[in-house]
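Per reviewer request, we include the raw input and output of the structure prediction for the construct analysed in the revised manuscript.
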Amino acid sequence: EAVYLIRLSDGVIVYTNREFETLFGYAHGEMLGKHVSIVNAPTSATPEEKTAEIMGIIEDKGRWEGEVENITKDGTRFWCSARVSTFEHADHGKVVLSVHTDITQRKRAEEELKEHRDHLEDLVQKRTSQLDGRVTESEQLNSAMVNVLEDLRASNLELEAAGRELAASNAELDAFSYSVSHDLRAPLRHI
């Protein structure tokens, strides 16, 4: 793991291991004597503001742990998980021991996952909107079919009523026909 020591009184780097120097792109010993803010990438806060924020927490609680966006000597940004604590050093007084682990790949994967999730949410929202439109269309078609069925029922009732009237008229016509034929048979029998 990448390790370095920072003098708490002034924030100056007093020790770096090879992994730390390699991670940040510096030659052996090149970071010694420099202010710790050189490792922080500028974000919404300046590197100095970010350093002051973290150092304030360390002075208050004696430790800090979190994720921080760092910057290499050549300006490349990358993410680290940092675990920081203080102890009394024989030569440098109270120092901050910081252990950094590169988590850039994980952060990229998280960002990619977030982009995919956002894309899927957009697709779900679009599909839901399409389905809502189809549901509305189906409801309108259903309503139209209900109206057609009601019209058919009304027409059917009218046809049934007309059928009954026709049956009654046919019955009257049969009765009349029977009566006429009966009335005509009597004189024909006499003849």
